[in-house]
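Journal club prep — side note

Before the paper discussion, L.F. wants everyone to see what a predicted structure for a comparable chain looks like in token form. Sequence:
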Amino acid sequence: MALCGTLENSGAEAFDVEKSELLNQLRLQTHEREETSTRSLRWLWITLVVVVVLGAAGAGAWMYFGQAHFDVEVATSTTPSAGGGDTAVLQATGYVTARREATLSAQITGTLNAVLIEEGDHVTEGQVIARLDDTAQKAMLAQAQAQLHSAQALLVQYQSTLAQNRRDLKRSQELVGRKLVAQQAVELAQTQVETQTAQVTTQEKQIELAQASVKAAQVQLDYCTVRAPFSGVVIAKAAQVGEIVSPLSAGGGFTRTGVGTIVDMDSLEIEVDVNEAYINRVVPNQPAQTVLDAYPEWKIPSHVIAVIPTADKGKATVKVRVAIEAKNDPRVLPDMGARVSFLEEKKPQQANAGPPKGVLIPASSITQRDGHSVVFAVEGDRAKAKTVTPQQTYGDLRLVEGLSSGIKVVKEPPAEMKDDAKVTVVTTKQ
């Protein structure tokens, strides 16, 4: 029994030792996990602080070094003069066209013997500009003239015979009255007179036919000479000596259809396409102002000739003809691009009115920001957004309120330009 008690005590002690060791191991593992978590949390906070510091540094650097910069052209706001002038109610673009322009060609097929024009030459109505080989036409004319002369000579012969027959008839009638010849002799003489009269009439008609043949041959000969139908300026030379010209383009690519093209500079005008939604603003004889793309500073007085009474359904536009007062100026050339401002005449009661309220700036300076009309005023190296109220238009200028005179504004502000943007003023493009 004593032995059993000893064994039980030994087992209990061993169990207590193992339990103690297990508890110690659990305490160590728990302590290690707590230390690991603390270290991880510490590094997470350090990382967050670094990110925040770097982000703040980057934002500051962008604010100082990365802000958008613009090269801009500027215009100065001006105060309008008293009366304000005519107001543009509509603008449209088009081209200079000539109402009288002709490509000249011969009316017959032939070989060019001479071309007497060059590009830029001024020609007058009826002036010879080219000649074709006329050998065949001259021969035809000579033949027709010879036939005419032959017919005229034969007519003289028939007329002489007719005169003789009439004398014979008269004598026969006298002899019949004296009973010296039979009545048959008189009748025979009368028949000869009538027959010869018919021959004379027929020959006169033959002479008329020969004269018509001469005229036709002369016309064919004249076709060998190409003349200017009106006075103008040569803008194209299309053929050279030795080439064949034909109004029917006979011979395909080896035949020219024209000798040259001339334009009547007195017939120059502007044709513009006006959106049909605004065509009610344009009427005949309405004053206008034309600016050529080649000379943007030159404003040409103009007026509306006519509104063509048909619309282009593809473009939804109506064509308008505009007369220009300086059409004889050498700077105005066919097919030049042009911009036309249709003006509203100032009313008589406005003649003594004071200047309108506001200042004038280029219409292109006005842009939209957040639903408001805004211009960017240049102050030093910054562009400050200014809200304005647009009023009427004066050609390329727009009257606005909310801006002082003498302020420099950006002419064409980019869409991405914001308030206080950095800018550099550049010279206006010519």
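L.F.'s comment for the group: The radius of gyration is 52 Å. Keep this in mind when we get to the figures.
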